[in-house]
Amino acid sequence: MSAPFEPVAPKGPGETERPAPEKVLAGDPVFTTWNLEERDGLYCGIWQATPGKWRISYDEWEYCRILSGHSVITGADGVAHHVGAGDSFMLRPGFAGTWEVIETTRKDYVIRL
Fold it and tell me: What is the C-alpha separation between 110 and 62, in angstroms, rounded?
């Protein structure tokens, strides 16, 4: 069982992966994730991505707060949202579009399935 209070900070090297090759539109983005909690459909932690652009499609709710970097999230409607340090936002089920990392981006996240 987790402690009732836990500081949010990356520990260790994290888990590294890449988006599926068919989703990549530009670059060679690498994701690093530090999962802090995974239970009962709730996931939270810290995620980082290096520059690149890929297709995204959400079936879950995700709250994000950008800690550093610069990304552009563009919906299927073509509306682009530039996000950087200090920006918070919600991605809802059904959101689809692209995520482009301009400058390596790190975020806190909470996902609810």
Answer: 6
Give the pLDDT of the chain (113 residues) as one tens digit per residue: 566 777 777 778 999 999 999 999 999 999 999 999 889 999 999 999 999 999 999 999 999 999 999 999 999 999 999 999 999 999 999 999 999 999 999 999 999 99
Give dist(CA 86, CA 69) in Å, integer: 10
For the chain, how many helices (H) and strands (E)? 0, 9
DSSP secondary-structure letter at 58? -
Task: Specify the DSSP element, H or E, that contains 17.
Answer: strand 15-17
Q: 51-80 burial by CB neighbour count: b if 16+ within 10 A, else e?
A: bbbbebeeeeebebebbebbbebbeeeeee
- Residue 21 in 3-state DSSP? helix
Domain boundaries, the chain: 16-112
Topology of the domain covering 16-112: Jelly Rolls (2.60.120)
